[in-house]
Amino acid sequence: YPSELLMQKITEDNQIPVHLHVSVSLQYVAGLKGRALVEFFHSNIAEVENEELRHLMWSSVLFYKTPGVEVMACVLLSTKAIYFLLDDSFIHADEHQSDFWNKENSDCENSSFHLSCCFVLKLNDLQSVNVGLFDQYFRITGHSADHIVTCLTRDSYNTHTFIQQLMAVLSLLARTPSPEPVDKDFYSEFGSKNTGKMENYELIHSSRVKFIYPNEEEIGDLAFLVAEKMDGLTNLPSLNILLYVLAFQVNHLEGSAQNTSSLQPKTLILTSSDLFLFDEDYISYPLPEFAKEPPKRDKYQLADGRRIRDLDRVLMGYQTYPQALTFVFDDVQNQDLMQNLTLDHFGE
Predict the structure, then answer these.
(1) Using CB atoms within 10 A as the burial measure, which of 22, 199, 222, 308 is most buried?
(2) Which CATH number is correct for 4-174+196-212, 1.10.260.40, 3.40.50.300, 2.40.440.10, 2.30.29.30?
(3) φ and ψ at 25, to 5 degrees?
């Protein structure tokens, strides 16, 4: 260990997405190749001597305790744990994190020593993995609120590859076998299925970790929600969601020294008649078992919506992935798509 093929694969995957900025410490990690990368893992990250690095991925991540802060991370999967090597700016992004991250090393800030936090989720603590719509993201759930992380890959290939590698590693775990199922009587068996709500597709791995995939009802619920945001004249059965993709909305910052832009995470939904941008909660749904109350915000919040018939032109950049698209609409003043929320539904 490790094989040349594995080292080549890990080296190829060790690339920071060009549109995201990271700290110096993570840039150093991204500069490592082959054996140097494996040695860095064993000397700085690995918790036990005999664990093997199996997969590396760069992704934006969200934590359950801090749902509003998306941070870049180098995700390392070994035969013992999943390691999230985090951008050091994350510690200072939110004042309410003092109980979540200890700040023992804050005296290193002004030196040439670059600090990275490493969040560790042991495979033995893993309970379930929820895969998002169209494999755009996935959520890893442990035994408490501190152990829930969403990886926003924004890429079905990266999601699929990580899930495959995770399943392979979980197969190596020696866990006690599940107890034999108790034979249910006819009434309890019949009653449990008559809930009126279809459960998501579940695949229970041999390691007893659940892999949960969305079903068709989730798309139906999303189509209904989108129809609600429209002008009410839409025929719901004919409403088709053509595209669901996690993207960024580019906001140019005026008055800055350089012509910089900030990227706001959005969910883009395209139907046969409209284009929508939603603020989506990627971390709180479905509710974890220990949640005492529903999240403070809905899963989908409409940020913007325009009719396709008002689309004037689409400008495309010439750079490679990620592709920048500019949608130019000719009805900026007359946004009659946006409903008046003060409408009195009980009036005439």
Answers:
(1) 22
(2) 2.30.29.30
(3) -65, -40
3 state DSSP class of 329? strand
Neighbours of 334 (CB within 10 A): 8
Which residue type sits at 107? Answer: D
Residues 19 and 322 sit within 8 Å (Cβ to Cβ): yes
- CA within 13 Å, CB half, 212: 16
Whether the Cβ atoms of residue 63 and residue 94 lie closer than 8 Å to each other: no
Residue 254, classified by CB atoms within 10 Å of its CB into exposed (0-12), middle (13-18) or buried (19+), is exposed
Three-class secondary structure of residue 261 per DSSP: strand
User: Global pTM?
Assistant: 0.81
CA separation for the pair 5, 2 (Å, rounded): 8
State both tokens at 45: 């990250």
The CA distance from 297 to 289, in Å, is 18
From residue 160, how far is each of 132, 134, 137, 307 by CA, in Å?
Answer: 11, 10, 10, 33
pLDDT tens by residue, 1-39: 789 999 999 999 999 988 778 888 899 999 999 999 999
Q: What does each C-alpha distance from 224 to 26, 49, 236 come to in angstroms?
A: 42, 52, 7
User: How far apart, in whole angstroms, are the C-alpha atoms of residue 227 and residue 74?
Assistant: 38
- Amino acid symbol at 24: V
Span 319-331, mean pLDDT? 80
